[in-house]
Write a structure and sequence with these properties.
The protein starts with a helix and ends with a helix. It folds into 2 domains: 3-124; 131-224, Herpes Virus-1. It contains 8 helices and 3 strands; from the N terminus they run H-H-H-H-H-H-E-E-H-E-H. With 225 residues, it is mainly α. Helix 1 packs antiparallel against helix 2 (43-77) and helix 2 runs antiparallel to helix 5. Strand 1 (161-164) and strand 2 (170-172) form a beta hairpin. Strands 2-1-3 form a 3-stranded antiparallel beta sheet.
Length: 225
Amino acid sequence: MSISMVHAALSGLKSCQQDIGTSMDVVTDVAMDLVESHETEHSSSVKELQDMILECASLDREINCFSDIVERLSSEVSQLPPEALFSLSVNVKEQFEQKKASFSDAELHNHQKVVAFKEGVGSALHQDNGEAAENVDEDIAVTQSQVIFTCPLTQVEMENPMKNKVCNHHYDEGAILAMIKARHKQHKKCRCPVVGCGNLDVTQADLVLDQLLKRKIQKRNSNKV
């Protein structure tokens, strides 16, 4: 075994992790479809989907933990004599088991995609189905929708709208994460790019994918075709 083999294995593991994240988004979409169908018998299915999301979140947490330990220990081993590599597997397993023992189920409910699932299903349950009954001028409604769908950073329609749990503003995922990274490289905080917002420290932990808004954008685009 060599350090390069370790890095290759980690790369494969992280690829699997991305697939897990995609699967969690699909599960959320299915749950929202069930809620929007207004079939009461689907409530048990939504609960099963939530349990599935929590299981995926648990697996995602374990992969993150395992990867962090492997990266840290392999970095330390690379500075030592070659024979130190033989103890890497044992040390990783030992530290991973110790860390797992401190995990709690309650933490999973704070996982970004679990929060997105709950907010998406909750929004689908409470959204007003009678849009025509709203006393809003059609032109104003269209303008409001365009503002909601547009990223304040890119000024173009969002593909993966992320909601800031602190100030409730939305940004496209790629744009806001790039901005946070750039500001942190400068050792500065990332201010919310929405004009007039007082949120001076936007962090990745504050962001959650807004599944309901994403579906609205996708539906509007499909209606244009």
